[in-house]
Every structure is written in C-alpha cells, then in structure tokens.
Design goal:
- This protein starts with a strand and ends with a helix.
- 33% of the residues lie in helices and 22% in strands.
- The chain is α/β, with parallel strands linked by helices and 199 residues long.
- The chain has a domain at 64-198: 3-Layer(aba) Sandwich (Glutaredoxin), CATH 3.40.30.10.
C-alpha cells in the first residue's frame, strides 16, 4: 500500500498489486507440460464440412476389423488391393438405400477381380447378432464387420457426424475417394474411380 498526499493535505491510499506477474518462460513451461500447444496441432483433426478427419491423398490409418465369419481384415492384410470401407448401421435409412447399389454395382462387379479388390461393410457400434440380421435384411453378400464403439469410424470421421460414408483406398494404401450420404451422381463417380483403380 502507498499513501499519496494531495495539495490540500489529504491522503489517498493506493493499493498496488504486489504479486509478481508470471514470466513468459512460465507460460512456455506450462504449455509444454500440458502437451502440444501450437495452432497446427490443434487443427490437425478438425473435421471438414462433411465431418471427415481425413482427406483424399492421405495414407489410410491403421485399422483392424473382424467380419461375421471371423476373418480379420486390416490395413496390412489389404495392402496391394483396392478396397472400400462402407460405414453403415441398421438404423440408417440412407445406408439401407445405398447398400443394394453397393452390392450390385461394386461388389458383384469387382469381387472377381483376382485378389485385388475388397468391399467391407463397417457397422457402427452394434452387436454381431444385429449386424447379421441387418446384412440379411438388405440382401448384401459382401463381408460385414461390427465396429465396436465406432473405433474405426473415429479414424475417418468426427463423432456424431453421421454414417453413410465410403472410403476408397488404392493399392498403395492411400485414400482415393470419400463419399458422404447417398448421392447418385457421387456414387457413379465412385464406380468410375473404382474402374480406373482396378484396371
């Protein structure tokens, strides 16, 4: 506290801040202890306008899925193949509309392409029994894989950003195309892209 005397002889008490202001070094140390603080690190996984956290040209993140027949599929096991991950769920009406097209225009068209193609349905956080019933009700014959807690989904899209997504991956393991919802024009472009990638 400091007393200041006015010209009239009266005093005013001035209460000054006596606690030291933390130095810039303190903030730098605090930031380092809490993990990366750069603007770049905070935006690495910001979803795009369609909810994707990956983009065309990225390497496909590592993943592992087990289909209803017990076969394990992973980034490593699919290396050298063109493949599509179709994110879906039994409660998704748009997924149900798209799946017959995937069966006929993608799976039936490319499954006999030697060992060079795979289409996997990735069902968002539903038990095997429900996934099996779902597959039967839609009539699809391509492998369906439960995705517990949406783990693989979270590698591709932000939480609660919606299923009905296809991820097309080329033989080098890079993302070649991303689709969202069931847009017939975009679906046709995906089929054209698959034609080019498998030839």
């Amino acid at each position: 506290m400091v007393k200041y005397m006015h010209s009239n002889g009266l005093f005013t008490e001035l209460h000054l801040m006596t606690k030291p202001i933390p130095s810039m070094a303190f903030f730098v140390a605090l930031c380092a202890s809490a993990g990366p603080c750069s603007a770049q690190s905070q935006t690495d996984y910001v979803p795009d306008e369609r909810g994707f956290v990956v983009k065309v040209g990225d390497d496909m993140p590592s993943f592992e899925l087990t289909d209803l027949n017990g076969e394990v599929h992973s980034k490593e096991s699919l290396s050298g193949k063109v493949y599509v991950l179709q994110f879906t769920a039994s409660w998704c009406s748009v997924c149900r509309a798209e799946m017959p097209h995937l069966e006929q225009e993608v799976w039936q068209a490319y499954q006999d392409n030697g060992e060079g193609f795979m289409l996997l349905g990735v069902d968002y956080d539903e038990p095997e029994e429900k996934v099996s019933t779902f597959a039967a009700s839609t009539g699809v014959t391509y492998p369906m894989c439960p995705d517990p807690k949406g783990h693989v989904f979270s590698l591709i899209a932000a939480p609660k950003s919606g299923v009905t997504r296809n991820v097309v991956v080329d033989k080098e393991g890079r993302i070649a195309m991303l689709t969202r919802l069931f847009d017939p024009e975009e679906f046709a472009l995906m089929v054209q892209r698959l034609e080019a990638l498998t030839n």
